[in-house]
Amino acid sequence: MSQTAPPLNCLPTFGDEDAVHVVIETPKGSSNKYAYDEAFGAFRFKMVLPEGTSFPYDFGMIPSTKGADGDPLDILVVMDAPVFPGCVLEAHLLGVIEAEQREPDGTWERNDRLIGVAAKARTHAHVHALSDLRPGMLDEVEAFFGHYNQLAGKDFKVLRRGDAQAALALVRQGARSHVR
């Protein structure tokens, strides 16, 4: 008897040891934004970024979590080379960019961006904390999200940066908030 696999957004949150599972939605270097659509059980094309703009790192979700915006928690994954939409990998949390975004209707909502490193990374194997990233990288990532949201008619405001423990607390809260 065969079993049906769970939807990607309902996979286990945690992997081995201190790693989280990540479902990549948009690969590094992509000018197209994709997002997993549970109703379709597939990735949907969301938009094209402006000419010359692309995702700086692989972007995805942590399954079986729910953030303040009602969606699975977002995560940017630093790794050696981009992977494809739908690829499931394990990542170690480095920290979080705690942020709010103003929607087109004028309301503000939290929309944090977790930062992780692929568990099987080679060139980033030395990265264990946000402070291990190259100087200026987080400034560039924050600027990317600010520009990306601006083009979607939203404002993006960074509140603060948090360490791996703050990121893990958000993931645990997101896992508790997820409706099973």
TrEMBL record:
GO terms for cellular component: cytoplasm. PROSITE patterns: PPASE. The keyword Hydrolase applies. Its EC number is 3.6.1.1. Its cofactor is Mg(2+). InterPro entries: Pyrophosphatase, Pyrophosphatase_sf. It comes from the Bacteria. GO terms for biological process: phosphate-containing compound metabolic process. GO terms for molecular function: inorganic diphosphate phosphatase activity; magnesium ion binding. Keywords: Hydrolase, Magnesium, Metal-binding. PANTHER family: INORGANIC PYROPHOSPHATASE (PTHR10286). This is inorganic diphosphatase.
